[in-house]
């Protein structure tokens, strides 16, 4: 798929995708005879994983570190797993914190509902 199609499927701008390529998050993107980028499902899966990590508040520099480990191959599997486990722990803490906030809001909403009824 070309840049436009890839951008539409990932919902990332072509500018962002070129930036990811520039900093090394997208490596070895093939080009056609005209020099235009040609993306495969392999790149699509990888970018979707990057998006997932970003949406769970993993910093871009940590994603880049993960990407660099990934590029080194199987010898870095333990390091990659550890990095993701650490991120999972942070994410679980954030979710627990957000649930506490949600519960506080629910309590306040219930309080206002009770006042409205009386």
Automatic annotation (TrEMBL):
SMART domains: HTH_MERR. It holds the Pfam family MerR_1. Keywords: DNA-binding. InterPro entries: DNA-bd_dom_put_sf, MerR-type_HTH_dom, MerR_fam. Residues 1-66 form the HTH merR-type domain. One of its GO terms (molecular function) is DNA-binding transcription factor activity. This is MerR family transcriptional regulator. It comes from Photobacterium chitinilyticum.
